[in-house]
Every structure is written in C-alpha cells, then in structure tokens.
Amino acid sequence: MNKTPAGPRFTKLTKSLAASVPFVGPETQERLRGRAFDARLGANESVFGPSAKVLGAIADASQHMWKYSDPESADLRDALGVHHGVAPENIVIGEGIDGLLGYLVRLLVEAGDTVVTSLGAYPTFNYHVTGYGGELITVPYRGDFEDPDALIAMANKAQPKLIYFANPDNPMGTVHSLNAVQKMIDEVPDGSLLILDEAYIECAPDGSSPAFDTDNPNVIRMRTFSKAYGMAGARVGYAIGHVDLIRAFDKVRNHFGIPKISQMAALAALNDQQYLSQVIAQINDAKRKITEIGAANGLTALTSATNFVTLDCGADGDYARRVVGALGELGVFVRMPFVPPHDRCIRVSAGTADDLALFAKVLPQALEMARV
Amino acid sequence: MNKTPAGPRFTKLTKSLAASVPFVGPETQERLRGRAFDARLGANESVFGPSAKVLGAIADASQHMWKYSDPESADLRDALGVHHGVAPENIVIGEGIDGLLGYLVRLLVEAGDTVVTSLGAYPTFNYHVTGYGGELITVPYRGDFEDPDALIAMANKAQPKLIYFANPDNPMGTVHSLNAVQKMIDEVPDGSLLILDEAYIECAPDGSSPAFDTDNPNVIRMRTFSKAYGMAGARVGYAIGHVDLIRAFDKVRNHFGIPKISQMAALAALNDQQYLSQVIAQINDAKRKITEIGAANGLTALTSATNFVTLDCGADGDYARRVVGALGELGVFVRMPFVPPHDRCIRVSAGTADDLALFAKVLPQALEMARV
C-alpha cells in the first residue's frame, strides 16, 4: 500500500484563510467572456496615462534592468522628501499602497488584535488584517461619507492597533475637510495608529490634506503613483510617518522589491507636476461628463473628490449588480460598492472621450436590461 | 506636562527583529564612497542584459502602465507552463524568488517552528524565517558543496516545516547531479517541504535539474528572471509545485504586485531562448576569463555552475574582506561568502570584456593592499 504524503504543514492561521483575491481583475473577466472590454472604467486607473517624461524614463531605465534596483529607493525618497517637505527617513516606498498595508499590518497585528475600519471601506486592507489574524471592527458610514467621529469613538472603546480611514474615500468618492481630518488625527487614542489613505488626494480640492507632522507617532499617511499619476501597473506607493515607524518597515519588507523601472518612472512622474495638473483638469472634465450622462439617464452622481464618479442607480444592490453586469456585456468594465446601502451605486472611473461616448451610448440599454 | 505618545504597538515578534537588509545594495556603497563603481560584479546580475525583444516588450508595455497588472499573470504562467511542461495551476509568479520565499515562509512557519538550511546559504531566506519567528537549524557544507545527505538527516531528526537547498549553490557556485537532487527529493520526510532554489539553473550543465513532478506535495521549485535572463531589476520569480500549495499563495500574496511591464518583459525573455543560449555562452567565456585572471594572481577558481566564479584567496576571512574592500576602492564591486571556511573566497560575477579588463588590472593591486 502506497503512503500518500500529507504535504506541507501550514500554520493554523493560514490554513483558516480563503485563497481569495480582494478584486477580480478585468483580465480575468475578459478571459471568461472571451473578448476584451471596449472601455476600462472599473479600477479607477488613469486612462490618461503617465507623463511623456515617464515613458522616456522607462526607456532609459530599461537599459539598466539587468541590475537589481536600489533597495533604499534613495533617489525617489529624496525627491518625495523635497516635494512634501519631509525627510527621506520619514518615507518608505512599497509595492503599491497594497504592499505597504500588508507590511504595516504584519508589523502591528497578530491573532486577537483588533482593527477599526468603516463597513464597506477598502477590502484589500481587510484582506491583510484577516491574513494576519486580526479582528475587524467596522463602523457604518454616515450617509455616503466615512465617519471620523464614529471611528474615533470606536477606537476609544476597542483600543485597536490600527484605524483605517481613506480621504478621499473609495468607493463613494467623498472627502472630508482638512479640519475634520486634523481633528481626527488629534483624537487618535494613544496606542492606536491611524492609517490615513490618501490614494486619491491629488484629485481632491485644495486643502483636503493636513500638513505632514512626522513627529506624531500615531498617524501614517499613504500615497500612490497608481491613480492621478497614471502608473497603476508600476506598483509604487509610499508611506510618510514617524522615523521609528518608517524604519520598522525594514524589518519585514522585500528590500529589493521595487523594480528599477518603477522607481525611475515614479521619479519622472513626480518631476512633471505640470502634466499632473493637466491630467487633473482632464479628470474633472470627465467627471462632469459622467455626471451629465448619469443625469440624462435618471442616475444621481455623488460629488466626487477622486478620479471616479459614484452614480446612485436609485434602487437596491441587486439592481446595481445587474447594471454592472449589463454594462460588462456591452463592453464597459465598471465596479460598484460592496455593501448596502452603498451598493445601490455603480462606480465609473474618469474615461477618455471615446470611453465616455460608449458609456453614454450603452448605459440606457444596460439600465433597460437590468430592469428585467 | 505634555503626554508623550507611546506610538504604535508592534507585535512581540516584530519588536524583536532588527531593521536590517540582508544585502547592502551597491548604490548604498556608491553613495557612501561618493562615486559609482566602474565594474558591477558583486550581485550576480547579468551584465549582458536582457534580449532586445525584452526591450521592445517594455516599450509596448509602457503604453499600458496606467492599467493595474493582471493579478493572475495568466499570459506568463501559460507560457511558463508550456516551457516546463506543467499546468499553469502549478505555477505562481512572485516579486522575485525573495518575494516567493517570504510568502512561503508565512504560509508555513510560526513561532517555534524549525527550518533546516545550510550554514552560509542564502541569507534572504534566513531573513524571512526569522521574520516569522521560525528557528533556523543549519548543517555545514561538505567542502564547497551543500550537503543533501546532511540536510535530509537533520530533517529526519528535527522534522522541520521547510528545508532549503539551492542547486546550483550560491555563494560557492557548485552544483549537484540530477541523481543526487532526485535522491534528496525522494527522501524528504513527510511533513517537511523541500525548497529547491534553482535561481542559477540556466547556467548549470545540462541534466542538473530533475523532471518536474507536480504530484509531489513535498517539494517546491523556484526559478527567476533575475539571473541568466538579465532582468534582476524587473523582479519576476516563479515557483512550481503541487496545485494545493501553489493555490495557497493566493491566501497571502500581494495579488496586484507584479508590474505589467515586468510580466510582459518576462514573457518576451522566455520566448527568446536563442538569446538565452547566446548569453550562457558569454557567461561561460567570462567565467573562463575570471578563472584565468585568478590563476595569474595565485587565486584558485572553484568550478562554477552559475553566472559567477568563486575565487579562493588562500587565506582567512579577514584577508578576503580586505580584498573585497580594496577592489571596491579601486572601482570594482564584488561580494564574498559570509561564513568560514567559505569566507576565504571572493565571488565575481561574469562581466563584460571591459569589466574583466578592469578586474585583471586592479586585482594585483587589491591583493597587495589586502596583504597589509
């Protein structure tokens, strides 16, 4: 009788985890449907792409790709430090904000620890918390806004290791004022760390983001080149915080993990702020257009401080899910919030004129199909 | 009196870790010395670079970098499956072998678990094991070779979660025969997982690598585009194993972590096997030249199955460290093994004709300086 090998012994924790991906990629959907989407408006990427200077930097960097990248990302951190008025020692570069969230959770969270976030906020953060055995405590949004007061109140009660707060918010696109955010920062209970996820901050109205205070050990800020900078595929995010916290990432990160091309592309993107302003204008135009298209079809747009518009479909989650499905069948990739009552909405990224012409054309048909 | 905030609460484990990097990058050394190295022969990169087709693929991919990359890396996994004669479900792509080792250790190792490796083997693996609270048990090399029999004997004794074995080996560059490796695979105690790190396998003599057997849950193979394929800066590694083990990576990995450009570059590299053969020939020429340069200076070269040559400096670790330092001062970046008795050696990557001309020129001077 042959012995069947039992295979590797997973930890109790990882044995309990689902082999799940927080987001199904559009490529996966395209493989399932057998053809590509005609408009890619579901992942809040920037269809306007990166600066031409970024493409030039990539061509230069490709000549050096045989080399391991600088594990300190020194050039990029120096430039970000100048840009934000903080020291390079207060900045860590990661494989997107996703990568940084993973490292941060690993540093702080173990089995039994609690973490506070909003019900319906960024699922990849939840993926990391669960992945390290943490317990998620959620507070509801207040209408279509994350609720800083409720998050702080819950933090005072639960004494969590981490509090997650995105400003502007995804998936609703709403933003809080600088004063509201500063008040939240000031009220973080000692022993908790506030993650202020500012992935979309470049798209927000001026004055939505408090000044950096790297003396404060109770907050870490996260930014990315994936959104307004148009470089989602490069995977470059960064965190700004107290030097002791930033240095701790060196205990756990994949030191050589940021590709050389990505580092040099991000540096070029940062150095072309004129292009960024131009893109923000294009994003704002596109958001106006999406709002109009929605209105023409009886859908109300939420005011957006991001590079997408959340459209209220005016019914329940099942209806909105059918709208998303129908749009997909008609060649337009969009996504939607995960939980009620936000799942009455669909989420449409700022697109090119062609993208939005197609969206305008097929939306009436999609709504018709969804009505069943 | 102001309250000084205590800051975030790290886990007991991460509090105990050092904020260390397994390897100091040459860029860090260059910043310290105030000028660039003239020859970069210390990180076993491929100075010959990637195929011209890779550069073309990067230019194409850069047009799409505004998109998140395919989290399944489906095109690359399909192509690798065909190349190696395994199913895509048996392959996971990671941020270099470093990234995959981190995920694998996380899946299996928690506080108190043991892991077996060789004393002086890959330090980044050790970094991950320590980082997840595992306990490293080391066995000595047998001469300049890792010792499969000793590794298996220790595994039978310690019943570790993981056994690490590199073939060919780094830092010594030696290789075991297919038969020796197959015997080791067959003898892995049930409940232990053998990591067969084949980062340098493309440089090894034909027949150094056993056939893939994805029915075997007790072994996982790791490969990379960082060495012979000349793409260290792209950070693409892959692992091949049993479908249950490969699927488990989906529980913990950074799903969107492999940049679009890196995926497409790796695909182009894989599809240009003719270029790979050409590079292997160049590597072999360079290794011959390094051997000759060593011999002309009284240093004995170990037979190498990798893209570097380990040169025995004939004295102790302090002497070899002085040689490495002197070469650095003279503009040549090399590294050396970490532990005795291997630290009698220095490790020189296959270089261009210019690199090796400089190495030949400055080596006598460096040896002179090291003699003190």
From TrEMBL, chains A, B:
Origin superkingdom: Bacteria
**Which ranges carry the Aminotransferase class I/classII large domain?**
41-361
- Species source reads Paramylibacter ulvae
The UniProt keywords, alphabetically, are:
Amino-acid biosynthesis, Aminotransferase, Histidine biosynthesis, Pyridoxal phosphate, Transferase
| Entry EC number(s) | 2.6.1.9
Where would you find the membrane-spanning parts of this chain? none
Q: Does the keyword Ligase apply?
A: no
Return the protein name.
Answer: histidinol-phosphate transaminase
